[in-house]
Amino acid sequence: MTDAPLAKEPSPNELRDPFVRQELKRATVWLGLAGAIALAVILVQPLLIIFAGLVFAALLDGGVRLLGKVLPIGRGWRLLIVMLLTIAFLFGTFYLTGVQVSAQFSQLRTTLESQANRVAGWLSSQGLMPGASDVSGIARQALSSVGRITSWVGTAFGALTTMFMIIVIGLFVAMDPRTYQRGLEWMVPRSNRAEFAVVLERMGKTLRRLLAGRLLGMLAEGVLTWIALSIGGVPMAMILGILTGLLAFIPNIGAFISGALMVAVGFSAGTDVGYWAIGTYIVVQGFDGYVLLPIVAKKTVDLPPALTLGAQIMASALFGILGLALADPMTAMVKTALERSSEREGERDGSDDGVEQA
User: Against a cut of 0.90, is the pTM above it?
Assistant: First the structure.
């Protein structure tokens, strides 16, 4: 009996087989991608807090760079000055206007409730809305659903904890941004690190410019609204100016909310005052949209309004109120990355055309 010849090539189930190893690599890549997506979905809220900290770090870094143009001192000292000025402004504003703002907040809530009840009653009398009891039930149901979606920032403790973490992350990153940038570069293959560094640098520059423009717009809208409403005798002009300035950080949606508040408070004091509030809203938003915004956009970041609004709708639906606030910075960073990718494709096409002509 003769022995049968033995197979010498590797079997298909051995890892030494190039085909098996190639397929295993592909499966690992797809499994890793699926795991990364699942992990991002699970950790979306902490990731948003980290991103908010990076946005705050960019804001501090912009102030440090701006201060460096007039004060040739170390970065740490400039960062300390920026932080002290920020804290002094916040505490000074709340200390000087705290009592008045607190009283106006209470008055604003009462006024808005009465105005909402009047509007709901008129709509109910016209048959355009359910009765008052049904309206209250719908409102409670809507508020309870919103509370479930944003429960992680719904309580005062949660909001304070979130704000504290954002400030701490932003402060640590602003102290030495190069360390964290280098850490991100290490996570990228060596052949792509140079391009990744360029993209990060452009994203940081875009974010600083965007935030500078937002702060300028917030200040202008808040001050102009306060002055105009005070001249027209609109109640609670100070708190409406502060709210308008804060809501200006969120384009489109913030302007709509602040306008609704102004009109509601204005008509609570009389028809003429209500018309003045409407005129104030139109003038301030017109100045911001047609005068201030184009000037700022030339120096900062020009985002199309429809793109910004679409990003805000999707971010608020997916991530809640924090996603709504961060939709603008996220859109600007994605836009920067896409522009850099298009620029690289143009450079590659140009080099290919040069080679063909040679």
Answer: no
